[in-house]
Amino acid sequence: MTDREERSYRRAQLLDDPRFERFRTLPARRRLVGALTALLVAEAALFILLPGNPVALLVIAVVLTAACVLCIGLLKASTRGVEELPERNLDEYQWQLRGEVYARAYRIGQALLLAELVAVGGWLAFDLPSPGRGVVIAALLIPFQLAVILPTMVAAWHRRV
Q: How confident is the model over 11-41, as pLDDT tens digits?
């Protein structure tokens, strides 16, 4: 067994840990998705509302980042890593589910990107003043983060993982 295979096997075992069973029910997974969504909204609000106070921004950003990491870790454990593990670590159902999850996440991501482009187009069409630095940072950071975690959120929202 190569080092890479061994690491993916250990990762699969860690994500299948029975200590995370309470997070594997559909209501618990959906609460985690809701919590992560609330954290992303709070992060966007943080950059929009506190761009002039770097100390408060840093302190709150560190707390939000820690909460996001915990929430994403719990989401990945609740889905048993179906969206991230190599194919050799998945059974047939999980492999098929991952394809569905990525397809759905892609469609959701495209719709969100379209909404952002429409907002920018509207901003330009009505010749509104340029947004503040916090709005620009949030508009760039949140879509990037969503692109990374959207498959995990979609997998957790799915009825059966």
A: 888 888 999 999 999 999 999 999 999 999 9
Task: Return the pLDDT at 66.
Answer: 97
- Position 124 scores a pLDDT of 93
Helices 26-49, 133-157: inter-axial angle, 10-degree rounding? 180
Residues 6+ apart with CB under 8 A from 78: 20, 23, 24, 28, 29, 32, 156, 161
Give the pLDDT of residue 12: 87
What confidence score (pLDDT) does residue 96 get? 93
CA distance 120 to 112: 12
Write the burial class of residue 32 (CB in 10 Å: 0-12 exposed, 13-18 middle, 19+ buried).
buried
For 81, residues 6+ apart whose C-beta sits below 8 A from its C-beta are 11, 12, 15, 16, 89
The tokens of 83 are what? 């969206």
Orientation angle between helical segments 133-157 and 92-125, nearest 10 degrees: 150
Q: What's the distance, CA 141 to chain centroid?
A: 12
**SS3 at position 2:** coil
